[in-house]
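Researcher: Next sequence.
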Amino acid sequence: MNPLYSLRSRLFDLISFGRSELTIFGIILGETVFLGATFLVAEPPYLLVSVEDGTALAITSVLTVLLVVGLYILLSGLGSQTYSLKLHSPVHILKCWAIYLTLAVVVVYLGYLFFVYPYSGTVIPNSVDIGIGAVFSAAYAISMAGLINAEGYLSDNTTSKSASITKFLTAASDLRETQESEIVDEPEQMIEAGGSIITGLQTSRLEGTEELAEDLAEWLETFEQRELRGQKKMVGDLPDSNTRFSIWEDRYSDFQDLQQKLEAMDNSAIGKVILSIGGN
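Model: Next structure:
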């Protein structure tokens, strides 16, 4: 594979969150045009009131910090909507955060060269312009992420990922803990919710989802073909160790692996960060 194409694909994956190229390019183009129009209609100086340089830097620094923190939270929320395990990782979301900010800084700096440089006469902005540029960059990045998030809500008419995962895992727990005579429709709930999860995984444009879809589909197909007692064994209701069969232990082990991945997929990156901080 061409190294440049591979790099482009990886960078796009860090930006897209499963959206199409047309959607992402449309959002970037719209954001850039809006930013350019903002520079065009404004006249330097860009601060509406006269303030000391130190005060201006303090204000822009606080605004920038608030915006970049908000960006990470928003990107974490975007990742939690996907079926990608990577996009539920705090470290991977941090990579996305860095790419968003880098893209925004490049666009804002180009805006500076086109619209501010003729007044300033220097390609290196002064400290106040850097502070204002930082705010513009963070705002550009967070608005782009917000538009991607809004597009996802407008285009998604299916059952939410979280609801499907919760239904699947809850039904599995109930099936494991409930006596056979008291079971109502837990296996059917698992099959229905599992099917929704598989559909979500198969229609995702993100790396790794296809493999997980195949693993879940294979396990669910075996589960559907078993009688009730076998279904209970597949979710962990195993007999005493001296009467166990390795085939049921293997199937339960496969379920545990799927359960671990689904649980990880049902918790956002920012949630994991908060839990980690709370644990420490």
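Model: The CA atoms of residues 187 and 227 lie 10 Å apart. The chain has a mean pLDDT of 84.
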